[in-house]
Amino acid sequence: MSAHCQLTGAKPGFGKTISHSHRRTSRRFDPNIQRKRYWLTSEGRYVRLTLSAKGIKTVDSIGVEAAVARIRARGVKV
User: Fold this and answer.
1) Eight-class DSSP state of 3
2) Domain that holds residue 51
3) d(CA 44, CA 42)
4) Is residue 49 assigned to a domain?
5) Residue 3 falls within a domain, yes or no?
6) Distances in whole angstroms, Cα of residue 42 to Cα of each of 34, 39, 45
7) Which of 29, 38, 67, 77 is the S-S candidate for 59 at Cβ 3.0 to 4.6 Å?
8) Residues 7 and 59: beta-carbon distance below 8 Å
9) How do residues 16-74 score in pLDDT, each as one tens digit?
10) For the chain, how many structural domains are there in total?
């Protein structure tokens, strides 16, 4: 599963880990991605979305129908 949120577009950030001796090594900051299943009443089926924690909170506040509409507007197939 790719670390990419379908709703917010959150994806990994990249940077460096700096040790005590100040050696720098590459690292990756992954968003908190979860796969969640929602009932879509307009289509009478479940949809499985790959969302970040912030994306889940957004779905809770705006509703599943509006969230799926936003995802489809971004060009992502649901």
Assistant:
1) S
2) 13-74
3) 6
4) yes
5) no
6) 24, 9, 8
7) 67
8) yes
9) 999 999 999 999 999 999 999 999 999 999 999 999 999 999 999 999 999 999 999 99
10) 1
